[in-house]
Design goal:
The protein is α/β, with parallel strands linked by helices and 408 residues long. Helices cover 39% and strands 22% of the residues. A hairpin with a 3-residue loop joins strand 3 and strand 4. The structure holds adenosine-5'-diphosphate. Its cofactor is Mg(2+); Mn(2+).
Length: 408
């Protein structure tokens, strides 16, 4: 059994989970919050118990020292010693056009993550900090980068180019990249397994509906369309992000005296379900308000579902056939009513939900369409951490070991 550490490092927080491979069992996970402040917190949960520690956390190195302390706690720790970890997988946001798969991290990979910082100015530096801190904590242990963008590198130019002067692509790399790739890849593979089908002859549309939301069309295991674009702002109406807009609105607002900073806030933090409902970015709160007759909340739900239906229709039009429609993410997995709202009226393109099955299925992996539905509707809980652990395991066992053998 190999124990792998999965790290998802943000600018002020860090999530981690330990997996036992190859049996893919989670041994426990933790969250470090308020990195960069004198009042840092770590919470770790495993079957050994819960650990909660408060310590000043000036930087990510200090956070990693605390992670090591929690992981190896004599009472409630997940590990006896930190050297039980034989590989680390890092969620890494932007691989640009450099990576279409996960990779073992070396100097070139670190340079590429730095090079792509322009494209993900908040995330890539935080991811790099996590990588460096983990390398210091576990010298000599292979580290793997799993990019959010990598899965969508199979998009054709017809899907990734914007209708802009070409030099914006050649000079500034402005194109659709897409995000949530690790989730779409995971749920689509699991859905194909659930249907007992072969990837090679299966096409799916995967809806990842969480606070961030995106839809991806996957033909024979490869991403061919995805709704997030140059940034995660494009596409669906999300928790606080606007999704698709007429770009002229932004110019209009600039002319009206709003600053670029104001507009950025409106479209990223104050838009979406929150902006439309005026209630919350949390779908549960919006349902509650809508049930009490709040018209803005009712419209927010309708806009959310309408946009998703539009994308499903558009993506179906560009696929020869669609075998499955997948729901995942906090809303896709749990919100029975929203799944129903979305599928209502998709019957004309062969997506026929069984409303009783949808209700009975709840949040489990399962099929919620009618037996006669040409497209199988599937609920599939996502697990990006497990996909990262799986990639890490496969890379260090196949490629890393053969590389070591070659060097010897
Ligand atoms: P993130 O993108 O932050 O990872 P999640 O995938 O956790 O987000 O999804 C968060 C969303 O899922 C919120 O809008 C939340 O209201 C919604 N959600 C979670 N559980 C339920 C539920 N039981 N019913 C409806 N919505 C839910």
């Amino acid at each position: 059994m190999e124990k792998l550490l999965v790290i998802n490092c943000g600018s002020s927080s860090l999530k981690y989970e330990v997996y036992a491979m190859p049996n893919k069992t989670s041994l426990g996970k933790g969250l470090v919050e308020r990195i960069g402040s004198p009042t840092g917190i770590i919470t770790q949960k495993s079957d050994k118990g819960v650990i909660e520690l408060n310590e000043p956390l000036p930087d990510h190195d200090a956070a990693m020292v605390l992670v090591k302390k929690a992981l190896t706690d004599p009472d409630k720790g997940i590990l006896k010693a930190i050297d039980e970890i034989s590989g680390v997988g890092h969620r890494t946001v932007h691989g640009g056009e450099d990576y279409s798969t996960s990779v073992i991290i070396d100097e070139d990979v670190i340079e590429a993550i730095k090079r792509n910082t322009d494209l993900a100015p908040l995330h890539n530096p935080a991811n790099l900090t996590g990588i460096k801190a983990a390398m210091e904590m576990l010298p000599g242990v292979p580290q793997v980068a799993v990019f959010d963008t990598a899965f969508h590198q199979t998009l054709a130019p017809s899907s990734y180019l914007y209708g802009l002067p070409r030099e914006l692509y050649t000079k500034h790399k402005i194109r659709r990249y897409g995000f949530h790739g690790t989730s779409h890849r995971y749920v689509s593979k699991e859905a194909v397994k659930l249907m007992k089908r072969d990837v090679e002859n299966t096409n799916v549309i995967s809806c990842h509906l969480g606070n961030g939301a995106s839809i991806t069309a996957i033909r024979q295991g490869k991403s061919v369309e995805t709704s997030m674009g140059f940034t995660p702002l494009e596409g669906l109406v999300m928790g606080t992000r606007s999704g698709d807009l007429d770009p002229a609105i932004l110019l209009f607002l600039l002319e009206k005296g709003y600053s670029a900073e104001d507009i950025n806030k409106m479209i990223n933090k104050e838009g979406g379900l929150l902006g439309l409902s005026g209630v919350s970015n949390d779908m549960r709160d919006i349902h509650l308000a809508a049930d009490k007759g709040n018209q803005d909340a009712i419209e927010a739900l309708e806009v959310f579902a309408h946009k998703i239906r539009q994308y499903i229709g558009a993506y179906s039009a560009n696929m020869v056939k669609v075998d499955a429609l997948i729901f995942t993410g906090g809303i896709g997995e749990n919100d029975i009513r929203m799944r129903e709202m979305i599928c209502h009226r998709l019957e004309n393109i062969g997506i026929v939900m069984d409303y009783d099955r949808n209700k009975a299925n709840g949040s489990k992996p399962g099929i919620v369409s009618k037996d006669y539905s040409p497209v199988t509707i599937i609920v599939m809980p996502t697990n990006e951490e497990l996909q990262i652990a799986t990639d890490t395991y496969e890379l260090i066992n196949e490629k890393y070991k053969s590389w070591v053998l070659l060097k010897e």
